[in-house]
Design a protein that fits this description.
- By secondary structure, this protein is mainly beta.
- It is globular and about 45 Å long.
- About 0% of the residues lie in helices and about 20% in strands.
- The strands form four sheets. Strands 2-4-6-8-10-12-14 form a seven-stranded parallel sheet, with no helix packed on it. It has a three-stranded parallel sheet with strand order 5-7-9, with no helix packed on it.
- It contains no helices and 14 strands.
Length: about 200
């Protein structure tokens, strides 16, 4: 195990190799490692916990192991150098503000097993232009893509039944959205300030 806050605020740490023997990474283990640039999470780790890589502002690439089932709250918030993320099919849930304010994140692929995208998961990802939502997502919570000002189009899969309030608020570049017949509940402010 890597314990809670094990490498917290190691501001000069640039690289980490996590061995396959590791099965658990604690809360905030690499939080505030401002110089950390790349990380690979091995298949032996089942969960990416809360705030693990929060404020790793130099992190440009992350590889998520194929056995990870959940991405915790604020796991990658303020990873402002991260440009793309592929969430594997093993993941079933994405936590609250998981990628909050990842301003250079341009593309996101959400695996086919994700059923829930937490509130504000991609809020203020102002560079996000493309997102692929997996075919098992049942709920898009409030503010998920709030202020994603570069997002141009979104296709919501037939699995989705509810879309939270302000989910696409201030997505000023959004020109096309397809909402399937499966959606039975849309909360207030869904497309507020979508001027395009």
């Amino acid at each position: 195990n890597i314990g809670n806050y094990a490498f917290w605020d190691c501001i000069s740490l640039t690289s980490v190799t996590i061995p396959k023997s590791v099965t658990s990474i604690g809360v905030g283990a690499f939080q505030y490692c401002y110089s950390l640039m790349t990380v690979a999470i091995p298949n032996s780790v089942p969960n990416i916990g809360q705030a693990i890589f929060s404020y790793c502002t130099s992190l440009t690439a992350v590889t998520i192991g194929s056995n990870v089932t959940s991405i915790g709250n604020i796991a990658f918030e303020y990873c402002t150098s991260l440009t793309s993320v592929t969430i594997p099919n093993s993941v079933t849930s994405i936590g609250l503000q998981a990628f909050y304010n990842c301003t250079n994140l341009m593309t996101v692929t959400i695996g086919s097993s994700v059923t829930n995208i937490g509130s504000a998961a991609f809020e203020y990802c102002t560079g996000l232009t493309s997102v692929t939502i997996g075919s098992s997502v049942a709920s898009i919570e409030s503010l998920v893509f709030f202020n994603c000002t570069s997002l141009t189009n979104v296709t919501i899969p037939n699995s989705v039944t509810t879309i939270g309030g302000g989910a696409f608020y201030n997505c000023t570049s959004l020109t096309s959205v397809t909402i399937p017949n499966s959606v039975t509940s849309i909360e207030v402010g869904l497309f507020s300030s979508c001027t395009s």
